[in-house]
Amino acid sequence: MNLGTRGALTFRLGDYCFAVRVEEAGGILDADRLAQLPGVSNPVAGVAAFRGEMVPVVDLAEYLGIERPVSQGRGYALVLSRGPDRFGLLIPEIPRLVPGRDLREAPPADTDSELGDLFESVLENGQDQFHCLNYWRIFETIIPPAGSSAGKSASMERGT
Amino acid sequence: MAAGRDFREDDARPGQSSPPPAVLITFLAAICAGIAGSLASGIMAWIGIGAVAMGGAYFASRSARPRNVSSDLGRARRLLLLVERGGGAETKVPPEFTEDWAQVYEKVNRLAFDARTGPPPGNQLEQFRKQVALAASFLTDGKDPLVEAPELRAGPLLPLLEGVKGSSSLPVVSQLSLGEEEELIGAGGDALPPDWPKPSGEGSGRAPDAAFESGLRDLVREIESLRTTLAGGPNGEGKPASEDAALRTPAQLVDAVVLTAADGIEDLAAGLMRANELASVAERVTNRATLLALNAALEATRSGSEAFAAIAEETRRLAEFAREATDTISRLSSEIEYKVGETITAIHATSEDAKTSLAEMSGSAAPVPSSARSARVQVVRLLDRSRELLQSFGSSDALDPADPDTRAREAITIRPSGEARNSVQDNVQNDPAPADKSPVEGILLIEGLKPGAHLDS
């Protein structure tokens, strides 16, 4: 089955496995270089420099309410790119690259419907199932685009 | 020579030398005073005569002190000094002493001195007794003890056994005549240095068998003296070493040993900490390499370029190799650290056991501690064995083999040191990582990153 992707970066977050298509991924960086910003909401972990640009990093576990395992370092940031826009997902481990030929699409579970429009698809590799989310939508709910209505309302709430 | 101090103390021991001339001088002074007192009956004359008697006694006591050196031990000391300096033709060596026997004599005297002043001599006596029994058993079987038991080459019986060997084979070099020595070194008589040590007893002047018998007799005599000392001899020298303020108590010795071992292990631990720091640096480098490999594989997958994919694959292999090496270093470091900790624990436990045993010994109500009685029994057995050797040698009878019970006591019982984990690796890698673990264990926490290093592309 042609999934329309060359592969996926998979990672585990708590008891769940997630996947990011390689067409969306821009790269991986060490989250130790993450800089925290004052006055930002909780899911935003900070900003990081990625190939000369400043990208915001979102803590996906914090956003989804998943308890993260205790680790020594801060983890890694998986950078997603869409045209000129980029942001990072804070993940606790180095993701695993699974080629597209080893992936199959699986039917979604009942719990996936709770995610609403944030859920995209489920990929399967052997016995493992990976949830593909609409990460850009998640990012926009946290940091709305500057021209959107959500962004305007957020600016009004802050009084700017 | 370190043994010189020993013999000086022995020299000053009263009761073992000829009657001191101080007594004779005092006696003569008293006789003269009596004669003079009978001649002069005045009080002043008596006072003067008494003063003369006291002065004579004082002078006699002063002049009599250095004359105690004529004891046997003092003669042995002089002999040992002469032998150590190389001897010479003018040396008046008693016929019962040769160089080899003098060395044995010295060791036995050192043993006796250590028994009087040091900690309980059970260990040295037991070792010496074992060597004697072992050598006797081999001699009984007609074997060469120096060949059959190499540990005897480092013991005090080496000269004795070499003498026995020399009696049945070629003489040892020290027993050769001057001409034979010249042949051995391939030089003429003029080439010999003037201070070249001359062979004692003129080489073939005495039969080796006579030397053996004489040496063994001296050995028996010294062991008798040692037994008397351990039993609390008439000179009162059998008091335990802990009563001597100048010497360290056994507990202090145990503390010193433990401190020395602890210092060495602390140095080892410091080096281990430095190795751990380097291992953490290698771990960070490996993580970077893994990230680089993953980014390269990601770009290769996105672009679909085979050349890029080949480079990404090589980078991935390099990162995996670095990961394996780093994991090995971390495991080894953890195991070493665990073993060091285990060793420190064992040292402290052994120290506490030793202190407890010593406290029990010193706190015993019995007048003679059990260890002292045991040492005395061992000395008696050693003396009996030596007498048997001497009698057997004199009658040319076969020597009795070592006592089977004695052989059985030589078995060493190793007390298990408790349950110990075989490997830290198994415990650390499989356990979840608490936040308060040590730095080394913290390194292994990055094991959680390992699955990400296996790239399938």
Characteristic terms for this protein:
heterodimer, A: 160 residues, mainly beta, OB fold (Dihydrolipoamide Acetyltransferase, E2P), six-stranded mixed sheet, five-stranded mixed sheet, 3 helices, 14% helix, globular, B: 457 residues, mainly alpha, Helix Hairpins, 0% strand, elongated, disordered N terminus, disordered C terminus
What number of structural domains do the residues of chain B give? 2
In spatial order, strands of the major sheet of chain A run 8-1-2-11-10-9
Tell me the CATH topology of chain A: OB fold (Dihydrolipoamide Acetyltransferase, E2P)
In helices, the fraction of residues of chain B equals 55-70%
> Structural class, judged by helices and strands of chain B?
mainly alpha
Tertiary shape of chain B: elongated
| Main beta sheet strand tally, sense and closure of chain A | 6 strands, mixed
Q: Which two chains touch over the largest interface?
A: A-B, 26 and 27 residues
Mean pLDDT of chain B: 62
> What are the low-pLDDT stretches of chain B, counting only 5+ consecutive residues below 50?
1-17, 66-70, 86-91, 169-192, 199-208, 233-246, 395-457
CATH architecture of chain A: Beta Barrel
| Secondary-structure element string of chain B | HHHHHHHHHHHHHHHHH
Q: Main β-sheet of chain B, in a few words?
A: none
Q: Would you tell me the structural class of the helices and strands of chain A? A: mainly beta
